[in-house]
C-alpha cells in the first residue's frame, strides 16, 4: 500500500506559502520521509530590495557606518557591509551555544535582497527550532535597531536560494 501524497512536500506549495513564522515539522531534514532531502530553510530577517541594487547597498552601508569605530568591522575598505554587520552582531551576542549570523539569498522573492539568518532547518535533531532560537532573534533584532539603526522585520523561515534551479513540481514525498 502506497503512502498518501502530502501536497505540503512539493516545492510549489512551499514557495506559495513562504515565509513561515513557524516552519512545518515536515520541512526539517530530520523529519523527512524515506530520507528525502528537503530544501534548506533559513530562519532570519529579510533585508529588503529597495528598488535598485545601489539603494539597497546604500542602506547596508549606512548600517555599517553605525558600527562603533573601536570595532574593525566599521572599516568599509576591509569589509563588505553585510559581512561587517554579521561580525558585529556576533560580537555583541553572549550565548551558550555556537552562534553565527550569515546572509543568504532566498528563493523566488524579488522584494528581498537577502536574509540575515540565525538558524537553519538542517541543524536540529527534532523537527522544530529550539527555544533559544526565538530568544536569540529578539536580541539580534534589538541590535539591528538600537545599534545599527535598522528596524528589522519579524524573523521568518525562508527557502534557500539554491531551489531556484528547480520547478514547482519538484516532489519531496
TrEMBL record:
Protein name as it appears in the record: Uncharacterized protein
Organism: Mycena sanguinolenta
Amino acid at each position: 500500500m502506497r503512502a498518501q501524497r502530502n501536497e505540503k512536500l512539493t516545492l510549489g506549495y512551499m514557495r506559495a506559502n513562504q515565509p513561515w513564522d513557524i516552519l512545518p515539522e515536515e520541512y526539517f531534514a530530520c523529519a523527512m520521509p524515506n530520507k528525502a532531502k528537503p530544501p534548506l530553510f533559513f530562519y532570519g530577517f529579510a533585508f529588503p530590495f529597495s528598488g535598485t541594487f545601489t539603494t539597497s547597498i546604500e542602506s547596508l552601508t549606512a548600517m555599517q557606518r553605525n558600527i562603533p569605530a573601536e570595532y574593525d568591522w566599521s572599516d568599509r575598505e576591509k569589509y563588505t557591509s553585510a559581512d561587517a554587520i554579521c561580525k558585529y552582531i556576533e560580537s555583541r551576542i553572549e550565548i551558550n551555544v555556537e552562534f553565527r549570523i550569515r546572509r543568504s539569498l532566498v528563493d523566488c522573492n524579488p522584494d528581498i535582497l537577502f536574509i540575515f539568518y540565525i538558524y537553519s532547518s538542517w541543524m536540529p535533531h527534532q523537527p522544530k527550532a529550539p527555544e533559544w532560537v526565538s530568544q536569540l532573534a529578539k536580541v539580534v533584532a534589538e541590535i539591528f535597531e538600537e545599534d545599527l539603526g535598522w528596524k528589522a522585520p519579524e524573523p521568518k523561515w525562508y527557502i534557500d536560494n539554491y531551489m531556484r534551479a528547480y520547478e514547482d513540481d519538484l516532489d519531496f514525498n
